[in-house]
């Protein structure tokens, strides 16, 4: 078991983990207009965007989890809206999940809440169920926070669905504090000691 920087040939595995955990920790296959949509919004952009990083959990036979994000949410949002999302294949709503995913992806202010001022970085973490409960999540979070602190970032945030009880319980155990709740989502923050 180890954490390593994602390699270019990890793209498909990262997209797969995103899909298999994309329904509040459960499999989101078939929940959106196509099975690539979720990763195009919440995973693959971090392999290319400004300030992006991706660390993977590999148990010897491939990626079973990751933490990815950006050290600069403002720059990342600008790039996502102006370059990344317009270059993705056109998608039309076909499922109930598309009613929030597609408008959310197209919103140029989606990542720019009030939290960004003091916590300019953000991250996403996902682990396949078989990799959960064995310390991988904590290790990935700590590795990401160390990486961000080394970049001089003073704080990081993340957003979880309020319906994802496991995630909402997990983040305070790894040093995050609840910042706000709105529209079925919980925003968590963690300072990185760079004030």
Describe this structure in words.
The mean pLDDT is 95. The chain is an alpha+beta fold and 195 residues long. It has helices spanning 11-20, 37-42, 73-87, 98-106, 136-150, 165-173, and strands at 2-5, 52-58, 63-70, 121-127, 155-161, 177-182, 185-191. β4, α5 (136-150) and β5 (155-161) form a beta-alpha-beta unit. The relative contact order is 0.15. It contains six helices and seven strands; from the N terminus they run βααββααβαβαββ. The chain has one domain: 3-Layer(aba) Sandwich (Aminopeptidase).
Integer average pLDDT = 95
Percent of residues in beta strands = 15-25%
Report the uncertain regions: none
Note the run of SSEs as H and E.
EHHEEHHEHEHEE
The outline comes out as globular
Number of helices: 6
**Based on helices, strands and strand pairing, what is the structural class?**
alpha+beta
CATH class: Alpha Beta
Strand order of the largest sheet: 1-2-3-4-5-7-6
Number of domains: 1
Largest sheet: 7 strands, mixed
């Amino acid at each position: 078991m180890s954490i390593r920087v994602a390699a270019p040939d990890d793209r498909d595995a990262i997209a797969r983990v995103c899909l298999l955990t994309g329904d509040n920790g459960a499999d989101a296959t078939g929940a959106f207009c196509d099975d690539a949509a979720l990763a195009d919004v919440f995973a693959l952009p971090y392999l290319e965007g400004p300030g992006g990083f991706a660390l993977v959990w590999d148990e010897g036979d491939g990626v079973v989890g990751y933490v990815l994000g950006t050290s600069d949410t403002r720059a990342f949002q600008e790039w996502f809206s102006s370059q990344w999302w317009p270059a993705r294949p056109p998608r039309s709503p076909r499922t109930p999940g598309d009613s929030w995913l597609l408008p959310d992806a197209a919103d140029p202010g989606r990542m720019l809440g009030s939290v960004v001022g003091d916590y300019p970085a953000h991250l996403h973490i996902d682990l396949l169920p078989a990799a959960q409960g064995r310390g991988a999540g904590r290790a990935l979070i700590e590795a990401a926070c160390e990486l961000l602190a080394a970049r001089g970032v003073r704080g990081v945030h993340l957003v979880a669905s309020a319906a994802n009880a496991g995630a909402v319980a997990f983040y305070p155990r790894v040093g995050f504090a609840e910042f706000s709740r709105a529209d079925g989502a919980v925003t968590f923050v963690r300072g990185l000691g760079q004030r």
